[in-house]
Amino acid sequence: MDSNSLSSTPAPKPSVPSNEWARQKKTAYVIIICAVLFLLAFVPVAFLYFETPTCFDGKKNGTEMGTDCGGKCAILCAAEVLEPIILWERTFKVTEGVYSAVAYVENPNISALVSRVHYVFKLYDANNELIAERPGVTFIPAKKTFGIFEGAVSVGEAVPTRVTFEFSSRLVWEKEITPEPPLSVSNIVLSKTDTKPRIDAQLSNDSIRPVSNVEAVAIIFDSDGIAIGASRTFIDYLEKAQTANITFTWPEPFDTGLGFCNVPVDTMLVIDRSGSMDDDGLSPPEPLTSVKSAAESFVERLQDRDQVGLVSFATSASRPADSFLTHDFEALKGIIGSVFIRSDSVQNTNIKDGMEEAYKELTSAHTQADSSKIIVVLTDGIATHPQNPRNAADETYPETEALKTAQKAKDKGIQIFAIGLGNNVNQAFLQKLASQSDQYFFAPDRNAVEGIYKRIATALCRKGPTVITIIPRVFGDE
C-alpha cells in the first residue's frame, strides 16, 4: 500500500467510556424528572393565584378601556357615552290638590342604554318651599326621546310653581345587544277638549315577536311647543303584528293660554233647506231663519286666515256650491241669508248629496296647505234621498249612501260635525255620520243651534293646531 492511500483513510473516533455515558443518561433523566415535578407543583399554584381578566374583578385588565368597562365588557366606560339630556320637566294640574309630573328626556347615544336607574321629582311653591317629592325607577332606552311620568302627586292646598327632575343613582351604561322592538302609533284622535279631554289611538307591534309590559306616555303641546297636558297608559301584552286600542283621559280641560290656534281651518257648512225647515213658521220660515242666523254667527267667530263655504241641500244639493271656500266672510254671510226653500216641488232630504258637494270642495285646489278641513252638516229630518235605483222601497239606502260619503271624507282626514235639529232625526245615524260620537250635537229646538255652532267654532280652534306625541317604551318582552 502506498503512502497516498494511507493518508486518505479517516482517523478512528475516540471511544467514550461506558461509565461517562451512564452519567450523561442519568443527568438527562434527572432533568426530565425535575421538570415534571416543577410542572406538577407550579401549575396548580399558578391556577390558584392567577385570575383570568373579567369585567367584574375590580381591575383594569384584558381588553378593558377602564376598570371593568369598555372593550369586551357589556358595561361601557363614561368616556364612551354622552349624558342624557333633560329637555324639560313640568307639572300639570289633574284636579284640586293633585298634579302629575313629567320629564322629557333625550338619550343621544345610538347603542347605549341604562337598564335601571332611580330618579326623583321635587315640586316647589312660589316661596321655593318643597311641597312634594316623588321618587321612582325607570330605564333609558337607546337613541330615543321619551317621557318619564308620575301621576297623582298630592300637594294639599299648595300650588306648585316649579319642579325639578334628576337621576338619583349612578347611570350604568350598557351596550344595546337587542334593539327595542319597533312599535308604532296611528289614528290619533283628540276629543272632548272643552269638558274631559280624551285621546284615542292605536298601538301596533311591528316586530316579529310578542312584547309585554308596554308603557305609552301622551304629551300634548300648544302652538308654541309648550306642553299643556300629559297622561300615561299600559298595555300588558301585544302579539307580533297585533294592534291594540289605547286611551288617555283627563278630568278637566287643558289650560291652553293664548295663541293656541295657529293652523288655518277650511270649513264647509252643509245646511238642510228641505220642506220641513219651515214647519215652525212660514213668515219668516222657521227653523230655517234661526239656522241661517246661527250659521252667520259661526262665520263671525272664524279668524282671518280661515276659509268657509256653503252647500245647501234638499232633494239635491246646490250645484255649484252656494259658496266656494272664501276669506270674504261678509259676502258669505250674505249668501247664507239668501238660502230659501223652493216651493215649486216637494223638497226631500238628501244628506248624501250635500256632503258630496262639500267633500269635492274640501279636496279641491281652493283649500289651503296644511289646513284643518271640516264639514258641519245640519238637518232637521231623516234622510229620504237618493233612492235606490234597483229598489225604490229601500228606506235604508239614503242613510247608507250618506255614510259612504262620510267615510270617504274621513279617510281624507276631513272632520265631520253633525247637528240634529228637533226630534224628527235619526240620532244614531247622525252619530255615525260624525267623526266622533261627541261631534254629534242634538238641538232640541232652533234656539239651541247658535250655542252648538259656537261650541263647534271653539272646538275647531282647539283641534286644528294640537300637536300630540305618544311615546311607547317596552319594559319587558316575551
Category by helix and strand content: alpha+beta
Cα(first) to Cα(last) distance is 102 Å
Task: Report the principal-axis shape.
Answer: elongated
Topology order in helix (H) and strand (E) letters? HHEEEEEEEEEEEEEEEHEEHHEHEHEHE
Rg from Cα: 40 Å
Specify the biggest β-sheet: 6 strands, mixed
Helical content band: 10-25%
Portion in beta strands: 25-35%
Mean pLDDT: 85
Q: Widest sheet: strand order?
A: 17-16-13-18-19-20
Q: So how many helices?
A: 8
What is the count of β-strands? 21
User: Uncertain spans, ≥5 residues at pLDDT below 50?
Assistant: 1-7
Write a concise keyword list for the protein shown above.
478 residues, alpha+beta, 6-stranded mixed β-sheet, 8 helices, elongated
Note the topology.
Layout: H1 3-7, H2 18-49, E1 85-95, E2 98-107, E3 112-124, E4 130-140, E5 144-154, E6 162-167, E7 173-175, E8 183-191, E9 198-205, E10 211-221, E11 227-238, E12 243-249, E13 265-272, E14 281-282, E15 285-286, H3 288-300, E16 307-313, E17 323-326, H4 329-337, H5 351-362, E18 372-379, H6 397-411, E19 415-421, H7 427-433, E20 440-443, H8 449-463, E21 467-476
Parallel strand pairs: 13-16, 13-18, 18-19, 19-20
Antiparallel strand pairs: 1-2, 2-5, 3-4, 3-6, 3-7, 8-9, 9-12, 10-11, 10-21, 14-15, 16-17
Helix pairs in contact: 3-4, 3-8, 5-6
